[in-house]
Write a structure and sequence with these properties.
By secondary structure, the protein is mostly helical. The protein has one domain. Helices cover 71% and strands 6% of the residues. It has four helices and two strands; from the N terminus they run E-H-H-H-H-E. A two-stranded antiparallel sheet has the order 1-2. Helix 3 packs antiparallel against helix 4. Keywords: Membrane, Transmembrane, Transmembrane helix. Pfam families: DUF2231. This is DUF2231 domain-containing protein.
Amino acid sequence: MNTTAHLVYRNPPGPLHAIMLAGTVPLFLGALLSDITYFQTYQIQWSNFASWLIAGGLVFCGLAVLFALVNLIRADRKAGRPVVYLVLLVVTWALGLVNAFEHAKDAFATMPSGLILSALTTLLIGVTAWLGLTSVRTGDGK
């Protein structure tokens, strides 16, 4: 009896790409927590914290987009859904940019839309990071 075994192995992003991707998650999460705190306390500094955290998240996310684009171009096989990952990453960056523009408004004018955008951005980067850091490739291992 002759059986063929297909290997399943992980094809995670490179170390710098992974750092940029993983670094984006706590920045957007921190912005969400800052928005929640601002919504409860009305202390303007929390809105400022959220703005800066969003800016940092956009920098990290933008660099992760560049790495993902280069990885997609260099990929010899299109396994592990790299196109879906890249699209989710670009959508996350765009939503974060809209969130940054929303947080540029005056104080409480950012609420509740800034809080909702922060929640959506955090949820989306969580899903994107999960997909990007756990991409599974099947094949012969070559």
